[in-house]
């Protein structure tokens, strides 16, 4: 499908001006259903992203398709491990955007191992991670909290 680099997909540093669109993207009901997430309130979103953009340990990138904001991709520390996560606006699903954005991020972020998790019901996200070399390390029940629904999730790792 998208084995070579798709020049229409780019990543750049996420900017404060991107946040209103990113906020709207994270409200999408179908996206939240697949990701087993609960949308953040405006106040919680603003607080989280203010912290993310200030933290030098977090790499936060905007994903652009033909110059249009299509989502975000982030590398962040959690529980002593480096993790990646991404959110793609629904109109860009199924076009290789997440896979290409993750490949671009992996060129910029040299740290390994990298970890990721995805709800087992989110087959598209699992395929994106596996296309980029992530391997399922384990499947576990993940407890719910204020951001995530209780769900079965796959924990993946990229070692090289």
Can you give me a brief rundown of this structure?
With 160 residues, the chain is of the alpha+beta class.
Descriptive account of the structure:
The chain is α+β, with helices and mostly antiparallel strands and 160 residues long. It has a single domain, classed as Gcn5-related N-acetyltransferase (GNAT) (Aminopeptidase, 3-Layer(aba) Sandwich), CATH 3.40.630.30. The chain contains 5 helices and 7 strands, in the order βαααβββαβαββ. β2 (59-65) and β3 form a beta hairpin. The mean pLDDT is 94.
CATH class type: Alpha Beta
Number of helices: 5
CATH architecture: 3-Layer(aba) Sandwich
CATH topology heading: Aminopeptidase
Distance between the termini: 23 Å
Main beta sheet strand tally, sense and closure: 4 strands, antiparallel
Rg measurement, Å: 15 Å
Q: What would you give as the CATH superfamily? A: Gcn5-related N-acetyltransferase (GNAT)
Q: Classify the beta-strand content into a percent band.
A: 25-35%
């Amino acid at each position: 499908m998208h084995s070579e680099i798709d020049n229409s997909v780019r990543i750049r540093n996420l900017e404060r001006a991107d946040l209103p669109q990113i906020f709207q993207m994270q409200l999408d009901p179908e996206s939240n259903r697949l990701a087993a997430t609960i949308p953040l309130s405006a106040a919680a979103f603003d607080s989280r992203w203010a912290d993310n953009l200030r933290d030098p340990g977090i790499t936060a990138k905007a994903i652009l398709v033909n110059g249009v904001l299509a989502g975000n991709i982030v590398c962040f520390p959690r529980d002593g491990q480096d993790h990646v996560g991404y959110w793609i606006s629904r109109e860009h699903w199924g076009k290789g955007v997440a896979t290409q954005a993750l490949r671009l991020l992996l060129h910029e972020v040299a740290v390994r191992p990298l970890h990721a998790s995805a709800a087992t019901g989110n087959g598209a996200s699992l395929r994106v991670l596996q296309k980029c070399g992530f391997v399922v390390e384990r499947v576990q029940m993940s407890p719910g909290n204020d951001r995530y629904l209780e769900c079965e999730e796959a924990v993946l790792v990229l070692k090289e």
